[in-house]
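Progress report, Aim 2. The chain analyzed during this reporting quarter is listed below.
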Amino acid sequence: MVPVLTYPSAEAERFFNVVTGRQVAVDPDMERTVQDILEAVRRDGDEALVGFTRRFDAPEFSADRITVRPEEIDHAYTVADPSLMDVIRRARDNIRAFHENQKQSSWFMTRPDGCYMGQLVQPVAAAGLYVPGGQGGETPLVSTVLMTAVPAVVAGVSDIAMVSPPRRDGSLNPYLLVAAREAGVHRIHRIGSAWAVAALAFGTESVRSVDVVVGPGNIYVSVAKKLVAGRVGLDGLAGPSEVVIVADRSADPHYVAADLLSQAEHDPMASAVCITNETRVVEGVLKALEVQTADLPRHDIARQALARYGAVIQTNTLEEAMDVANRLAPEHLELLVEDPWALLPGVRHAGAVFMGAYTPEALGDYFAGPNHVLPTSGTSRFASALSVETFIKKTTVLAYSARAFERDAAAVMALASLERLDAHARSVQVRTTARLCGRV
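Predicted C-alpha cells for the chain:
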C-alpha cells in the first residue's frame, strides 16, 4: 500500500521529485473557462451569480437568496446542537487567544536632527472568506469558518464577508451560519466556486467587493484567486496537502499510522510520509496501516494517496530524517520523537510543527488555536500560515526637518542624477535654492 524507501538512495531522490513537483495541472482550457466566469460576473453582476448557481448548485436559486438574512441565522441556532455550540465557542476562543499574540502596532523613531519616521499598521477595510461546501453541505467546514474569520476580527477588519456554495435547495448548513456569527462575520453570501471569488473581487449588486480573499477551495477557486491576484490580496493558492512525520524508537506505530491516514483521506493528491531511523518503526507502521485502513470509510482515497505520494523512509540518523523533512517542506510536520524540543531548532521549512506523541495534526486542524490554513506543496519554504498579518497593511511615514534636509540633499541629488531622473533631483534642488536665497 505504501512504498518503503531508504535514504540516501536514487529511489528516494525520485520520490522527492514526485512529491515536491506534484501540482494539480491547470490546462489552458480550464483557465479560459474561469476567466470567462470572472468576466461574466464583472459584466453582469447578480445575474451571472444566479445563472452559475442555478446551473451548478441550486436549480431554483434567485437573486434575493444571495445574501443570508439575520433571521435565517437566528433560526440556525434553534436547530444547532447545544453541545456542539459549546465546542464551536471553545475552539473560537482558543483561536482568538492564539491570534491575539500576532497583533502588531504602529511605531515611530526619532533622530536628534528632528527627523521622524515610522510605520502605520492598519487593517484592510474588507475581507472575503471562502468556505467550501463540503459534500453538498452535509459536512460543514466549521473549522474553516473559524480559522479564516477570527484572525480578521483580531486584525480589526470592519467588513468581513463569507461565501459558501448553497445546497441543492439553496440553503446553507445551519452550522456554517452559527459558526460565522460566533466568529464575527458581518455578511454571508450563498455563492461558491469561481463566481464567488469574482463577486468578492469585483463586487455585484448584492455583494460588496473586498480587499483580501482567503480560504481554501477546489481547482476552480484556486485558478480564480490566481487570476484576481493584484486586484485583491490573497492568503496563497491552496495545493495538495501533506504531512511528514519524523519518528524515533519511542514512537508508537499505531499513532504514526493514524496520523498518516488522517492526511491521506483528504484526497488522492495528498502526501503522507513517515521518516524514521528505526527498522522496528518501519515494520510497525506498515502493519498498523493495513489494519487501520481496512475499516476507514474513505479507504479508497487513502490507499490511492499512500500509493502515489506516500512513503515510509528509513534513514541512518535522526539528523538525516530532519534533512529529508526540510527538503519536503511540508504543510504539517509531526515530531513523534522522545525529545521533540531538541529537534525543533533543526526545522527550517514547515507550515506548522506538532510536537510529541499527544499532538496529532487534528488538534491544530480544529481546536488548539494555531491556524490550519497553511502553505502547501512545499511552499513553506517561503510562505506562512494565514494570520492576523494577512489582514493588515503597513504604511511608512517620513517627516524631515530643515536641518535633516540640508544634510541629505546633496546625497539624494547625486543618486537621482546617477539614475538620470532629473525631476527627482530638481525636487530637492528647488528647496535648496530657496533656502540659499532666503525665501524660506
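The chain has three domains: 4-23+239-368, 28-103+114-234, 402-436. The first strand starts at residue 4 and ends at 6. These observations will guide the mutagenesis work planned for the next reporting period.
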